[in-house]
Design brief:
eight-stranded parallel sheet
Length: 467
């Protein structure tokens, strides 16, 4: 039997339009939109009617950068695929693209299969995978072609973390050359890890061990230099490039200069760089460890450049880089040595709300909110128009959003499996009320009604900005 749901009376916001419309879904897909109060809309019947009067009706968020259950520094990210995707649903995100990890000496397939096993049957929302390339060799280069055919169409490389994920320029160039032929998108962690390691060693030798020094050694210039170098390597390889978690004004300038030349270069930033700063890293009594991530938080003056980049489209996407580690027992591993603090922050639950706060604050428009959080990540990673929009034929991933509700972010009320919030006490306007994932209600009037296993693996096409 077909199952129909009608969302009635709301303001439908997509990247392209704002229209007062009713939305009809059937069997997990959107089948029609019609103006509120029109004869067509009045004629529709459904098994369930959701009243969205005075609310926004927006596409489910697409978070293109998460790390569930990620191993790092002798521990694992605190959120599993079950807890992390449930938290994502609470925050209005209905699709994540997580990172499967190849370990050095291991085949890509081995790493990918391990991530399939972690996620299968455990996710509350739909998911896909990128592939982290930690060992670029002839075999892994050939495997890239096979993965693209399988719907794993993006590959992440690291200019940071020597001895763990780091690839030198020659390996990066080889992977970029392969991507230029197979249609894959290279994602780059752009920091000069070799130089950073020298500065880490020098800081520790001088007794500078507190969390704030994590930000001081990972210098802005070393992010900008690596961003510039990644762009030039991509030019040599004639390959597209997507730079992840851009945090610094100087790195934005490198991306803008490349885009001004018409190069297929894209940039992502994250809420932590838009709302937090080195002031947090400097919090006393080791509290700054809660804010250790890489690239690091920057001085507050960098935020204006990031917001400007989002408005001018020099930055196209806001993802979370969700990689949570508990303060107790995990972040504490770095007491007395900031280099041992696991790198990563919790954030998958709050991205949509924080970006709505940016609308309230006048940084971006409502449609740009949906563009950077839903539509562009869907296009960037080959999921559009199945994901990222509200249109006939799209998956019924729909969020009813109350733009007037007020909430205070806190570890006491969030649903991520981590013992602190980087936004503790922050008051924001706007809150998710109801969430549909492929037509199934997973958040119902701020109550969780989803289940592990509803979310399905979603193969991806190649980047839709390159066709």
């Amino acid at each position: 039997m077909s199952k129909r749901t009608l969302v009635r009376g709301g303001l439908v916001i997509t990247a392209a339009d704002e229209v007062h419309a009713d939305v009809l879904t059937e069997d997990g897909r959107i089948v029609a939109l019609a103006a509120n109060g029109s004869d067509v809309a009045a004629s529709w019947t459904a098994d369930r009617v959701i009243d969205a009067t005075d609310k926004y009706v927006i596409p489910g968020g697409v978070d293109g950068h998460t790390h569930m259950e990620m191993p790092f520094g002798g521990t694992f990210a605190a959120d599993t695929f079950e807890t992390g995707t449930r938290a994502a649903a609470w925050g209005g995100t209905t699709t994540i693209v997580d990172f499967a990890i190849q370990s050095p000496g291991q085949a890509l397939r081995e790493g990918l299969d391990a991530w399939y096993a972690k996620a299968d049957g455990n996710c509350a929302i739909d998911y896909g995978f990128h592939m982290i390339l930690a060992d670029v060799n002839e075999d892994s280069l050939k495997e890239m072609d096979l993965l693209v055919q399988e719907g794993i169409t993006s590959f992440k490389l690291f200019m940071a973390y020597p001895g763990v994920f780091y690839s030198d320029d020659g390996k990066i160039l080889r992977a970029m050359q392969r991507a230029s032929h197979n249609g894959g998108l290279i994602m780059m962690h752009a920091e000069n890890g070799i130089a950073i390691d020298v500065l880490v060693e020098q800081a520790l030798a001088a007794g500078r061990t507190d969390p704030r020094y994590h930000g001081e050694v990972r210098k802005v210039l070393l992010e900008a230099e690596a961003t510039h170098r990644a762009i030039q390597l991509a030019r040599v390889a004639d390959a597209p490039l997507y730079v992840v978690h851009v945090s610094a004004e100087e790195a934005v300038a490198e991306l803008a200069a490349a885009r001004d030349k018409g190069l297929p270069v894209f940039g992502e930033t994250c809420p932590q760089y838009l709302f937090l700063s080195t002031d947090n890293l400097a919090e006393p009594d080791f509290e700054g460890a809660k804010y250790v991530c890489s690239t690091p938080l920057r001085p507050r003056e960098h935020q204006a450049a990031l917001w400007r980049g989002l408005r001018t489209n020099d930055l196209q996407v806001v993802s979370t880089d969700h990689c949570p580690f508990c303060f107790n027992g995990q972040k504490e591993m770095g007491r007395g040595d900031f280099s041992k603090i696991p790198n990563g922050l919790p954030g998958v639950e709050h991205r949509m709300d924080l970006l709505h706060q940016a609308v309230v604050d006048g940084h971006i428009t409502r449609r740009r909110w949906i563009e950077i959080a839903c539509a562009t990540p869907a296009r960037m990673f080959g999921l559009y128009p199945k994901k990222g929009t509200i249109a006939p034929g799209a998956d019924a991933d729909i969020v009813i959003y109350d733009p007037h509700a007020e909430q205070t972010l806190s570890a006491e009320t969030h649903h991520m499996d981590v013992d602190y919030s980087v936004y503790e006490g922050k008051r924001i306007t706007g809150q998710v009320e109801t969430v549909l994932s492929r037509g199934e209600v997973v958040i119902d009037g701020r109550k969780y009604t989803g289940r592990p296993g509803h979310g399905s693996y979603t193969p991806r096409a190649t980047c839709q900005y390159l066709t």
